Amino acid sequence: MKYPVNEIFQTIQGEGYYIGTPAIFIRLQGCKVACEWCDTKYTWKNSYENQILNEEIIKKEKSNKKWSYMTTQNIILIIKQLKWTAKHIVITGGEPCMYNLLDITTLLEEKGYFCQIETSGTELIECSLNTWVTLSPKQKKTTLKSSILRANEIKFPILIEQDFLYLKKILHMIKKRKNNLIFLQPISQNEKALAICIKKCTEKNWRLSIQIHKYLQIR
């Protein structure tokens, strides 16, 4: 199985349940959701004119549209060559669940890594049973019920008060079948959105996710 990789780098997880955890990020190319406030718009299209060699991926000085097809073995080799020590792997995008992730999550787990997927839930989630699924629903495209039920945490982006109406629909689907961890995340560090999130987290006993990597100005 080959995956279109846009970036692979070691940093800390800046959002959600595993915030502050040293992590290796594998960012895949391709997304059909295309949110207007997205901060990784360079991952939306798989244009072949932007395809590069594997070794060029780790030489990228900044995020851009360049990507390369990689096998899980290619990815593991890069991790070992660069002597990265994090054992937490975050597979993100783009929309990573456009691809079958069973191969990559299973093989990484066999090598001693813990896998986390960050997904909008608009595509079927195919991964190992042990993979942690972070669901970040997007209102402009329907979230699959199967994705909602598979999720270990729901990290919901908020800009205005009305955004909670979609979250309410999602939580209604779950009802009492799962005790999901709910995180509210203000979009683009918007101050009004942050105030809304803090208020709602306090009322509902949910958690706040503030994208600390952006405040720290790291990847």
Provide keyphrases for this structure:
globular; 9-stranded mixed sheet; single chain; 9 strands; 219 residues; TIM Barrel; alpha/beta
Description:
The protein is α/β, with parallel strands linked by helices and 219 residues long. It has a single domain, classed as Alpha-Beta Barrel (TIM Barrel). 27% of the residues lie in helices and 23% in strands. The two termini are 27 Å apart.
Short summary:
This protein is 27% helix and 23% strand.
CATH architecture: Alpha-Beta Barrel
How many separate domains? 1
Number of strands: 9
Task: State the shape.
Answer: globular
Overall pLDDT confidence: 93
- Radius of gyration (CA) equals 17 Å
**Total number of helices:** 7
N-end to C-end Cα span: 27 Å
Question: Stretches where pLDDT falls below 50 for ≥5 residues?
Answer: none
Tell me the series of helices and strands, N- to C-terminal. Answer: EEHEHEHEEHEHEHEH
- The chain-level structural class is alpha/beta
